[in-house]
Automatic annotation (TrEMBL):
UniProt-listed InterPro entries: ATPase_P-typ_cyto_dom_N (IPR023299), ATPase_P-typ_P_site (IPR018303), ATPase_P-typ_TM_dom_sf (IPR023298), ATPase_P-typ_transduc_dom_A_sf (IPR008250), HAD-like_sf (IPR036412), HAD_sf (IPR023214), P-type_ATPase_IV (IPR006539), P-type_ATPase_N (IPR032631)
Family named by the database record: Belongs to the cation transport ATPase (P-type) (TC 3.A.3) family. Type IV subfamily.
Catalytic activity: ATP + H2O + phospholipidSide 1 = ADP + phosphate + phospholipidSide 2
Domain P-type ATPase C-terminal: 862-1117
Lineage: Eukaryota, Viridiplantae, Chlorophyta, Chloropicophyceae, Chloropicales
Protein name: Phospholipid-transporting ATPase
Major localization class: membrane
Keywords, sorted A to Z: ATP-binding, Cell membrane, Magnesium, Membrane, Metal-binding, Nucleotide-binding, Translocase, Transmembrane, Transmembrane helix, Transport
GO BP terms, alphabetized: phospholipid translocation
Gene Ontology molecular function, alphabetical: ATP binding; ATP hydrolysis activity; ATPase-coupled intramembrane lipid transporter activity; magnesium ion binding
Protein source organism: Chloropicon primus
């Protein structure tokens, strides 16, 4: 009954939503009063993530299947074949359609069964619910809104709950939100002081309260509500009092809560939406190709519709047209033509391959499950994280990417923060050398000492400076500022300590790695934060005395208010009452935000600190400014009234809190700044070099300052000294002067004018120098706002697309998405976005392909992505290996599918030319049904899974091969036309050669002549042998599976035909009672013409293919042809892995002498590399046999460019000089 009521409720809400009717803005819940809550008809707590039910599976599944154009087309064909004018038995078309639809629906059923099983497991999980005066065990699915439940330690919350009390005396509990956002750090939750005493069933039974809160929504981090008791006192609620479904209780014995939202109205369920359905560019092209084939089919039918009534005459007495003309009345040529058009339309339905889509689905699905997800090369053992393909629709699109949009922090860098340097009182501290400094020194040819970690090193802390460590900071001139700085680090945060309260044993759970690093730094400086209660923080301060001894002072800071960080505020503040009864506001945040809020007086370190910030940014460090102020008690109390009103508001609470924070966060005193290093991930520079060589343009979109971003760009090889850099900066002198002296409108006009001037100049220079050098563009967030305006965006896009690298600094999450969409929609090229944080989700979803990195910023990026990997370097394998192979395979099998179907169907067309286009079928019904399903489909799947032109190592050693996908070489109009024309040509050979060989004079040893069905069987045999052998010629990488299934398909045909021809007409397996096929094959094998046909026909058909392939490899080899030749010749003398290792480790010559030495070494030993274009056919990097291949090609044509359109052809792989 409950489930029925829920269904009705959902239907009502759905109707209201569609009609535009708005429900109430708040929800009113009666705590522990189920009778009153039933009237509201809230949903129960059962969930369903399945796609189908038992009732809806067939109607909904069939509807989805027939949304595909090809499936709907074959449904029409199957229906038409039921009528009398159909030339084939209905089973001929119905059988394959049922099989294809059945396989697709079986896959859907298996996947949905798993969802149902998972749902049942979740819904039946036990939980303690307060009923009839005591806690009783019940299932999650039976929980109702307003009920009180008890959750034990390490259990998951079954619904969204209002925290009433916990095992902690202060009503505090700890929650892990990993299932919600992927973050493993614990979050602190605390109930209202008014409910902390409700801990027993007896006290809870007497609890009668009303909860008024927001309606169900998908905002995970916000909640507004009020709780009122019978005394009419209203108590505001915030996210601090809410426990969300899917989170886990940790380090707390138990909690008690009241249910707010249930089932599909919980926040986690309202966030769980299916991954957006995406289709690859090849699939879109495939739809157009099917329309073209449909047009060709119609053309063939029109020929027959005209030819049939022309041919029909009453003098053709053997047709008995006078007795029963039926639809074929010679006197009514219009009807005859129309009927014949439909007849031939059914007969030629094999123009479009029915099994193409299901074969593609199987190939993509198996490739994902068995190759991408289980690839050890893209498995991260440190985090035990394999690659995860969340969709199989975009496999081949990975092989065509031309633009990559990347976040920096956590994507290019490790997101493992280490406190590295600081500036306090205008004095910089920290002697360490960052990775960026080392990269700059290396670029300038300077030597730096190795990085040796000292005794103070700890995860999150890599600071070295004797002036500060060991309590020496008290000797500094600005020791008072240092004291406040250290206290700020120890107090201004939301970190939760775990473990024993001892410096060596404690562990910090922080919302971000930056915050944890700052608290660890405070501990190492002698300000040890170890305890957090509901409203206080306890810090042990180790202050050196004058005699050098260290004295520990335990200080408890009362936390009066926390003004939390968000992407809009870019800062956080803590207002605390110190042990000496002072009210202090500590604030940390982005430099531009903090500097706007500094007092005009008393900030003598302002300019010097700004210089230090610039220096830290140039070293690639992440910076935060730190400031504080003492608040008079009266001012604080007056402000707190406004703050309390804002946090109890049910409308626009977040905005009101921000507005109130603006009031108090003013007139700050600058203390200094922190500088944290986020090291590059392993392999990032080499990965970017490889992608650049593959003609993949990389745009880095980061929130860092320009100096930091530029230096990170150099360190990871995104920016190089060879590039001409265009820097579009909105911080130049004229803009800053305008902002200081003019009104907002005037300064915006100056900003727009200056930015557009810089953009136009850069674009003009790029056009002028585009043939002689590469470019890089660097632009800051303020300038980007101007560049993204509709009237300016086209110029910015064109300039960016002319650059090999683009770095956008100080960008917001929305700007990341806007930049991605600008290129995606403005250029007909495939885009990919990669990121690791929640701020990257919009960017990831905006690109053709989204890749999430499972890092330290949670799993929201992964959950929004199409593919997930653990490290940026794995993107190389994903694109250059799996993507390129998938594109090659899918392109090949689609072309082959159309080739084999055109060949097969046109033999039927040629036959109809000899029978007056009567619509007489050439082949037996079983032949036609089994052609795509049994005799030619399995080898295609094997090719789609295993074929590769070059192996993994060579694909990465020669990234230029990737450009074939970008240029769409293998799925171009020319490539598809070649397949189609080949099918047309071979259909002529396959039909007419057996016809000529099987002349009526040809008889077997019993005197039987070659008739219709014998000729059809002969032609069919030739077709099966030809198309399977042609597939073998198309294979680049032969395995045992290729041989078993290609040649096995031919053998299977003969096994089938010998059994089928032995069956007595009318028995099971025969579609009619005629003796069409009975014993045909047994007669054929005794005729010389049959053996002549099945041997000669494939040879004649395939000889041109063999010759063309040979001539192409000899005179005009493609890039992968030469690498294949290279591999083949080195197979016996040297392993490919060793060969590639030599290529990677060999340096490029810097002078003619070094080049000559390398040439001599190459000629005397095995191959080391290949450069496509080299003067006079020689190369300093190419093996001799490759040079020979180049000379052969030059005999035929002077090749000005690479096969894939590059101006320099394929260069030897770059050396990893690191």
């Amino acid at each position: 009954m409950v489930k029925k009521r829920n269904s009705i409720t959902r239907l009502k809400k759905s109707i209201k939503g569609k009609m535009g009717m708005e429900g109430p803005q708040t929800r009113k819940i009666f705590v522990n009063d189920s009778t009153k809550n039933e009237a509201a008809e809230y949903l129960d707590n059962s969930i369903s993530t399945s796609k189908y039910t038992v009732v809806s599976f067939f109607p909904k599944g069939l509807y989805e299947q027939f949304q595909r154009v090809a499936n709907f087309y074959f449904l029409i064909i199957a229906i038409l074949s039921l009528f009398e004018f159909s030339p084939v038995h209905p089973v001929t078309n119905v059988g394959p359609l049922v099989m294809v639809i059945g396989i697709s629906m079986l896959k859907e059923a298996v996947e949905d069964t798993k969802r149902h099983k998972k749902d049942n497991e979740v819904n039946s999980t036990p939980v303690l619910v307060l009923r009839d005066g005591d806690f009783v065990e019940t299932e999650w699915a039976d929980i109702q809104v307003g009920e009180i439940i008890k959750v034990l330690d390490k259990s998951f919350f079954p619904a969204d709950l209002l925290l009433i009390s916990s095992s902690d005396a202060d009503g505090v509990c700890y929650v892990e939100t990993m299932n919600l956002d992927g973050e493993t750090n614990l979050k602190i939750k605390k109930c209202l002081d008014n409910t902390v005493s409700f801990t027993t069933p007896h006290s809870l039974n007497s609890m009668h309260a009303t909860l008024e809160c927001e309606t169900p929504n998908n905002f995970l981090y916000t909640f507004t509500g009020n709780l009122s008791f019978q005394d009419n006192m209203v108590h505001s609620l915030s996210p601090m009092q809410v426990l969300l479904r899917g989170c886990q209780l940790r380090n707390t014995e138990w909690v008690i809560g009241s249910v707010i939202f249930t089932g599909h109205e919980t926040k986690v369920m309202m966030n769980s939406k299916a991954t957006p359905s995406k289709r690859s560019a090849i699939e879109h092209q495939l739809d157009k190709l099917i329309i073209i084939l449909f047009f060709l089919q119609c053309c063939a039918c029109v020929v027959g519709a005209i030819g049939s009534p022309t041919f029909l005459e009453r003098k053709l007495w053997y047709l008995a047209l006078d007795e029963n003309p039926g639809f074929f009345d010679p006197d009514d040529k219009a009807v005859t033509g129309m009927v014949n058009f439909v007849t031939l339309f059914i007969l030629y339905s094999t123009f479009i391959p029915i099994s193409l889509y299901v074969s593609m689905e199987m190939i993509k699905f198996l490739s994902v499950v068995y190759f991408i997800n289980k690839d050890r090369a893209i498995y991260d053992p440190l985090s035990d994280t394999p690659a995860l393909a969340r969709t199989s629709n975009l496999n081949e699109e990975l092989g065509q990417v031309q633009y990559v949009f990347s976040d920096k922090t956590g994507t290019l860098t490790q997101n493992l923060m280490e406190f590295f340097k600081m500036s306090v009182g205008g004095v910089p501290y920290g002697d360490g050398i960052t990775e960026i400094q080392r990269a700059i020194a290396k670029r300038e040819g300077k030597a730096l000492p190795d990085d040796i970690k000292d005794e103070n090193y700890e995860t999150g802390f890599n600071f070295k400076d004797k002036r500060i460590m060991g309590g020496n900071w008290v000797k500094e001139e600005h020791s008072e500022e240092l004291l406040q700085f250290f206290r700020l680090l120890a107090v201004c945060h939301t970190v939760i300590p775990e473990g024993d309260p001892e410096p060596d044993k404690i562990h910090y759970q922080a919302a971000s790695p930056d915050e944890a690093a700052l608290v660890v730094a405070a501990k190492k400086f002698g300000f040890f934060f170890h305890t957090r209660t509901t409203n206080s923080i306890i810090v042990t301060e180790s202050i050196p005395n004058a005699d050098g001894t260290i004295e520990n002072h335990e200080r408890e800071y009362e936390v009066l208010a926390i003004l939390e960080f968000n992407s809009k505020r870019k800062r956080m503040s803590a207002i605390v009452r110190t042990p000496d009864d002072k009210v202090i506001l500590y604030c940390k945040g982005a430099d531009n935000v903090i500097y706007e809020r500094l007092s005009k007086d008393g900030n003598e370190f302002r300019e010097k600190s700004m210089e230090d910030l610039g220096a830290f940014g140039s070293d690639g460090l992440r910076t935060l400014c730190c400031a504080y102020k003492e608040i008079p008690r009266a001012t604080y109390e007056e402000w707190f009234v406004q703050f309390d009103a804002a946090r109890t508001s049910l409308v626009n609470r977040e905005q009101k809190l921000d507005d109130v924070a603006e009031i108090i966060e003013v007139d700050l005193r600058l203390i200094g700044c922190t500088a944290i290093e986020d090291k590059l991930q392993e392999g990032v520079p080499r990965s970017i070099e490889l992608m650049a060589e593959a003609n993949i343009n990389i745009w880095v979109l980061t929130g860092d300052k320009m100096e930091t971003a530029i230096n990170i760009g150099y360190a990871c090889s995104l920016l190089t000294n060879e590039q001409r850099k265009f820097v579009i900066d909105a911080e130049n002198e004229r803009i800053l002067e305008a902002e200081a002296t003019m009104n907002k409108q005037g300064s915006l006009e100056i900003l727009n004018e200056e930015v557009m001037t810089q953009l136009e100049k850069a674009y003009d220079d790029a056009k002028l120098l585009s043939e002689s050098m590469k470019f890089a563009l660097v632009i800051d967030g303020k300038a980007l706002q101007v560049a993204l305006q509709p009237e300016n965006s086209n110029l910015f896009r064109k300039l960016g697309m002319m650059c090999a690298a683009v770095v956008c600094c100080r960008v917001s999450p929305l700007q990341k998405a806007d930049v991605t969409l600008l290129v995606k929609e403005g250029a007909s090229m495939i885009t990919l976005s990669i990121g690791d944080g929640a701020n990257d989700v919009s960017m990831i979803q905006s690109a053709h392909i989204g890749v999430g990195i499972s890092g330290n910023e949670g799993m929201q990026a992964v959950m929004a992505s199409d593919f997930a990997i653990a490290q940026f370097r794995f993107l190389v394998d994903l694109l250059l290996v799996h993507g390129r192979w998938s594109y090659l395979r899918i392109s090949k099998i689609i072309g082959y599918f159309f080739y084999k179907n055109i060949l097969f169907t046109l033999t039927q067309f040629w036959f109809n030319c000899f029978n007056g286009f009567s619509g007489q079928r050439f082949y037996d019904d079983w032949y036609q049904s089994a052609y795509n399903v049994l005799f030619t489909s399995v080898p295609v799947i094997v090719i789609g899974l295993f074929d590769q032109d070059v192996n993994r190592a060579m694909g990465k050693a020669f990234p230029q091969l990737y450009m074939a996908g970008q240029k769409n070489i293998y799925f171009s109009a020319r490539a598809l036309a070649t397949w189609i024309l080949t099918g047309m040509f071979q259909s002529v050979i396959c039909f007419f050669l057996p016809v000529l060989a099987g002349h009526p004079a040809s008889v077997n040893e019993d005197g039987h002549m070659i008739g219709h069905w014998a000729l059809a069987t002969t032609v069919y045999s030739c077709v099966i042998i030809t198309v399977n052998t042609r597939l073998a010629l198309a294979v680049s990488f032969h395995t045992i599976f290729h041989h078993v299934f290609i040649w096995g398909s031919i053998l299977f045909w003969y096994l089938f035909i010998f059994i089928y021809c032995a069956m007595t007409p009318g028995t099971a397996g025969s579609l009619d009672s005629s003796d069409n096929i009975y014993y045909v094959i047994y007669y054929l094998v005794t005729t010389p013409s049959y053996w002549f046909s099945i041997i000669l026909t494939p040879v004649v058909c395939l000889l041109p293919d063999i010759m063309i392939q040979g001539m192409e490899r000899w005179f005009k080899p493609l890039d992968h042809h030469i690498i294949q030749e290279w591999n083949a010749k080195n197979k016996q003398t040297e392993g490919v892995d060793k060969l590639v290792e030599k290529i990677k480790n060999r340096g490029r010559s810097k002078s003619q002498i070094q080049g000559q030495d390398l040439l001599d070494e190459v000629r005397s030993r095995s191959h080391t590399g290949y450069a496509f274009e080299s003067p006079q056919g020689t190369s300093y990097y190419a093996p001799q046999e490759v040079v020979d291949a180049q000379k052969r090609a030059s005999v035929f044509v002077l090749r000005k460019r690479s096969n894939y359109g590059g101006s320099q052809g394929m260069a030897v792989p770059k050396i990893n000089e690191e």
